[in-house]
Amino acid sequence: MIALISLVLAFLAPQAQAVIGGDLNCTTYNGTAFVWTPAATACSNVISDSSCAILYPAPVTADGFPSPGRDQQRPLTCYTTASATPAGIVMDMKKAALDNCPRTCGLCCQTTAYSCSNVAFPRLNCATITSSQCVSAAWRTIIATDCPSACGFCNSGGCVDAVLDCANDVTICRTVGLQDFVNTYCQRTCNRCSSSTITTTSLTATCTSYNADSSTACTAWAANGFCTNTFYTLAQRKAYCARTCRIC
Ligand SMILES: *[C@@H]1O[C@H](CO)[C@@H](O)[C@H](O)[C@H]1NC(C)=O
Ligand SMILES: *[C@@H]1O[C@H](CO)[C@@H](O)[C@H](O)[C@H]1NC(C)=O
């Protein structure tokens, strides 16, 4: 069905705009053409770039591979078994491309690290975040909270290290003179994010009995993050869902 629809869409699309082949995931319309978004190529390939270039050759050699803001055609084998456009999407081909060469195929935005919702009211514009912001100590923790999909932080639960190499030497987490540093820059590696701290405290608390929940909706609330979201205070959690949240 999806293949049929895309086939019909491909035929209907005006030739001038039908430059990027297959589905238009990881692209945006710039007013005249569909162009690649920054998230299309923000990840690394899983296998080597040179192997990807052989498996997924650029359709127009001079144009090269997908790059943000431009409109290179997506390599055909990234999404179809056909040898010419318009070509229907073959999901197996797309899955193989996602698993092996998401960058070469301009599919990074659909990998698990890049496909999640951003917060409803982010403090910054998620759509314009650049790759240098993704590695900047000044930006990373804000982006992880507000715009996780922009930098591939979807699997990090909002908790990232502000600097990249904390995990090189985890003994810094316990070094007396470095506590201010790791609290600010190595929150993930050293387990200093507020929600993970709260989860850890409440789950490893030593008491064996809890007050009964005063709300009947605690299971649903817990599934929505009531026990871990720092938006709620410990007192609120304890008052409503002490047992479900395991708060002594
Ligand atoms: C993204 O890809 C999926 C599956 O290939 C397709 O159903 C969807 O329409 C695509 N979205 C866009 C915006 O092209
Ligand atoms: C949109 O992208 C196309 C292809 O890269 C480019 O030729 C065109 O100038 C862009 N238009 C705008 C308004 O940026």
Tell me what you see in this structure.
The radius of gyration is 23 Å and the shape is elongated. A two-stranded antiparallel sheet has the order 1-2. Helix content is 29%, strand content 2%. The protein has 248 residues and is mainly α. It folds into 3 domains: 84 residues, no CATH class; 81 residues, no CATH class; 50 residues, no CATH class. The N and C termini lie far apart (53 Å). The relative contact order is 0.09. The longest helix has 11 residues. A hairpin with a 4-residue loop joins β1 and β2. The protein has 9 helices and 2 strands; from the N terminus they run αββαααααααα. Bound molecules: 2-acetamido-2-deoxy-beta-D-glucopyranose (2 copies). One 2-acetamido-2-deoxy-beta-D-glucopyranose binds next to loops. This is ShKT domain-containing protein. It comes from Caenorhabditis nigoni. Keywords: Signal.
Radius of gyration from the alpha-carbon trace, in angstroms = 23 Å
Instruction: Tell me the series of helices and strands, N- to C-terminal.
Output: HEEHHHHHHHH
Report the end-to-end length measured between terminal Cα atoms. 53 Å
Bound molecules: 2-acetamido-2-deoxy-beta-D-glucopyranose
Number of helices in the DSSP assignment: 9
Catalogue the unreliable spans. 4-18, 196-205
